[in-house]
Design brief:
nine-stranded mixed sheet; binds glycine; two-stranded parallel sheet
Length: 461
Amino acid sequence: MESTSVPHGYSSPEIVARYRAFFQAHGHTELVGSPLAVPGNSTSFVIAGMQPLLPYLRGQQLPPSTRLLSLQRCLRSDDADAVGSNGRKNTFFFMLGNWSIGDYNKGDAIEMALSLLLEDFALHQSTLWVTVFAGDSELGIPLDETAVEHWLRLGIPYERIVPLGAEDNLWTMGGPGPCGPCSEIYVDRGLAFGCGLPTCRPGCACDRFLEVWNLVFMEYERFTDGSLAPLPQRNIDTGMGLERIASVLQGVESAFSIDLYQPALSRLNEQLSEGNRQRPDLSMPVLPVTPEVRARRVIVDHVRAALFAGLAGVLPGRDGCASVVRRLIRRAARQGHLLGLQQPFLNELVVPLAQAHDAFLRVEERAQVSTLARMIADEERRFTYVLARGLQYLAHLEPDQQGHIPGERLFVLHAEKGFPPDLAAEVLAERGLSVDWSSYEPALAEHRRISRLSAARHFGL
Ligand code: GLY
């Protein structure tokens, strides 16, 4: 079980208060109230703290100040299936950010970040590693020697400065938009968190080196063809995930065991010992964490994401952001099934989660919590029957001669039993089976053709 201690001064609200006070003392103005869902865009949630600042970063609008800070609610679900297998990836998270809109430079950003971590957060300098952009000849950007010099000047030894390529250290929004070389700060959590490989260092997939802060030197606009053009001004864009820094400062195992999750984890533990648990099915292959730990993490993470999506007005549904919420609730429900929990159970985690986040909720949001819990319960209840039947179907699927499950079988499962194909693929992956998707689309096309024909016959067309 993951531990629960919160050292004095480092509860999540206290960490935010320290961050805020530090950057306010350095002349930053706080931007408040940017919503989780992009207004007028029902297809995507806010994925980074910088997103609401796009017009300022692009020089299209005058910012209220050239020094800004925020605590932004973000939701990234593209790799939701990786949640829980490591201790650092949350779907919903709070991003602490400070920005210079053509104001201070790289050296100032690095100096302020280090000062906050070492002085206000009392981290040991010897535990800090950093990465810098190694350069990219195709993009015509050299190694970021300036960043290296600043880190050396501030006492980070050469052997703890790691150059990484564009894939890691050219920060983009995942597509077109403002971007730039970045320098990330990692905390070495120690051998006990690591893979033990001699090559283990920042950038390794294990949990030993935890990236806590990304300093982006945002100087370019990236276009759809991947080409770059300079922005009208040189900006600084930083992002520090609250859950990650809290896991370090609270001395707990993972970003799922911080104070913001504890009441929900306690309730989940009660549910698991309340006797309404059927025989758990934890026969998944061995992961870096046990299937039970992973399941608990996924459950609390996804319910939290559904809660904050609901507070932003996004309820489970078929399309866009709504479909993301539906998928998260279904994934969480399935993890409960693995733990042997009778459903619905997710709704009982909503109030403990909301209570733990009280300092971050507005008055009108607190009033919505019990309604959202009921909606999550309804969604889970609707899915319970589908889940049981779908899992039964999947348990009997045998791979073809190439060792794959034909995609058309997943199409049939979806068309006849309403079971989502992506969740089916995840369930199969846990059995070591992969899906040959090439037969999925033809099965869908054939289904549509037959539906059209029968509609035409029915209406005498
Ligand atoms: N924009 C910096 C980050 O999200 O890491």
